């Protein structure tokens, strides 16, 4: 009988990527070298979010239920609950940001708050959740109602993203000044998830995990792609193309190992909580620096943010089974 495949290693790698995301926003190397910090996270740190998107697409479609809206509906509902939980938790920070972004005008702040929530981007990191929702609904619409294959959709949205990167990233010919255009079209906007989620969908549809080339060659290809990333970044200003190939190969390698790890589920939950909560700790440090000129070594700052985020997730795990705290399960 065929051994049941588990995906514990995916959860472990996602946790590792989450630690990198914390580094992206806390800049742990900046006390030692600003250039290295920017280079490392702009190149290698940029693998984290695409890996999250690919894994989301894979697990959403791994049972080949793309034509059944109930699966997409369940996925979107879960993400919206996540968004609502963290929106409420981040409300004080969000309102302060809206107030200052609205030139300290209450009416302007309220309009900004409404606008940001309409695009699921009201708090730091929220764009990622909005992009997942937009991606899942868009893929369902074009796959089912327009009957467009995953491969064609991938090529369409990859081409669209590539055009934007060439114009706005590589060549820096223009930038989007209008808020809605910038949010939907800039490289870190809603459409960023689509090529990666479609990659995950294609891997799931083709049962790619059972048709892998040898791990040895996968690792060689991965290392070559990893080497190309900084070269592309240095000469073109971004590692868009090599980032896609490197992330796909990394996810494929991750699927090729059948690792059993008892705490994989805890790591999966913790990754989501750390991703969402570390922005709050960063906000506190930014406020201390802005109002009191408080600063510490960037490496120490990174570990404080990380430890605070992990501790917060542990508190949630401890309280969530109590009846009055069951709502905490919506945090992941």
How would you summarize what this structure contains?
With 332 residues, the chain is an all-alpha fold.
Describe this structure in words.
The chain is mostly helical and 332 residues long. The longest helix has 29 residues, at 264-292. The protein has one domain. It has helices at residues 8-26, 34-43, 48-61, 69-89, 91-101, 106-118, 126-145, 150-170, 179-185, 193-205, 215-236, 240-256, 264-292, 298-319. The protein contains 14 helices and no strands.
Radius of gyration: 20 Å
Order of helices and strands: HHHHHHHHHHHHHH
- The chain-level mean pLDDT equals 85
List the domain count as a whole number: 1
Number of strands: 0
Characterize the biggest β-sheet.
none
Number of helices: 14
Spans of at least 5 consecutive residues whose pLDDT stays below 50 are: 176-188
Based on secondary structure, the structural category is mainly alpha
What does the overall shape look like?
A: globular
Q: What gap, in angstroms, lies between the N and C termini?
A: 34 Å
- Tell me the quaternary state: single chain
Instruction: Give the strand content.
Output: under 5%
Give the fraction of residues assigned to helices. over 70%
């Amino acid at each position: 009988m065929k051994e049941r495949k588990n995906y514990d290693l995916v959860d472990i790698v996602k946790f590792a990527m989450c630690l990198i995301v914390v580094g992206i926003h806390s800049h742990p190397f900046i006390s030692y070298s600003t250039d290295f910090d920017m280079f490392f996270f702009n190149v290698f740190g940029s693998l984290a979010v695409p890996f999250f998107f690919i894994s989301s697409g894979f697990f959403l479609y791994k049972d080949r239920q793309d034509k059944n809206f109930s699966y997409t509906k369940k996925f979107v509902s879960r993400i919206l609950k996540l968004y609502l939980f963290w929106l409420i938790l981040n409300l004080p920070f969000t309102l302060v940001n809206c107030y200052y972004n609205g030139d300290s005008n209450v009416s302007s702040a309220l309009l900004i708050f409404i606008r940001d929530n309409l695009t699921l981007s009201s708090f730091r990191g929220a764009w990622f959740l909005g992009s997942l929702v937009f991606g899942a609904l868009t893929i369902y619409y074009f796959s089912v109602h327009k009957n467009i294959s995953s491969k064609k959709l991938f090529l369409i949205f990859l081409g669209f993203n590539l055009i934007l990167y060439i114009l706005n990233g590589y060549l820096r010919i223009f930038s989007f000044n209008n808020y809605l255009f910038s949010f939907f079209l800039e490289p870190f906007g809603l459409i960023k998830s689509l090529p990666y989620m479609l990659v995950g969908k294609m891997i799931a549809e083709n049962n790619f995990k059972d048709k892998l080339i040898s791990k040895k060659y996968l690792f060689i290809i991965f290392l070559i792609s990893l080497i190309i990333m900084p070269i592309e970044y240095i000469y073109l200003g971004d590692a868009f193309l090599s980032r896609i190939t490197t992330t796909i190969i990394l996810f494929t390698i991750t699927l090729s190992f059948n690792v059993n790890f008892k705490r994989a589920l805890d790591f999966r939950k913790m990754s989501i909580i750390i991703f969402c909560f570390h922005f709050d700790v960063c906000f506190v440090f930014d406020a201390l620096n802005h109002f009191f000129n408080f600063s510490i070594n960037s490496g120490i700052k990174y570990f404080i943010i990380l430890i605070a985020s992990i501790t917060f997730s542990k508190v949630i795990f401890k309280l969530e089974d109590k009846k009055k705290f069951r709502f905490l399960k919506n945090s992941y």
